[in-house]
Amino acid sequence: MLPDKNDLAKRYAAFSNDRLLDILYHKEDYTSEALEAVQAEINTRNIGVDELETFTVEKKVSNIIREQNALVPLSLGAKLLFFFAWFIPVAPFTFHRNYLEDGYTTKLWQTRFFRIAGFVSLMVSVLLSVWLGLGDAGLFGLLAVLFGVAYSLDPKKRTRAEAEG
């Protein structure tokens, strides 16, 4: 059951100005009753046009920053870390959580890709090394070659090429 106007008015009275303005900024996500209650609360608080404009500009800047963060790729060192140290239980998940919170979607995709590629590469390298009798040097050589293959198939490089094409 949807709350009535009085319930909405009570709820919105406890919201901060920024939260009320955020509701107006995302008005497509709310019912007309909710928007009316928010507008009434904004009128009660005498929130002016200046504050509304400042909020809108800050939101737009925030969106631009988020869009730019989404395109930032992993560094070579991070790719090496996720490829070769996928088995460390805490580190990859910590980075993953930070990338998620900060909106680094390209880094998230690359993190997943290099962790999976590292795991698969290790399994393939071990199997080939045992089957062909290559020893430790052969195992590490295969891992290095497979990292090169994974690096050439990097998801960021494909999306950049698609954008240019």
TrEMBL record:
The keyword Membrane applies. Keywords: Membrane, Transmembrane, Transmembrane helix. It comes from the Bacteria. The chain crosses the membrane at residues 80-100, 137-153. This is Uncharacterized protein. It comes from Chryseolinea serpens.
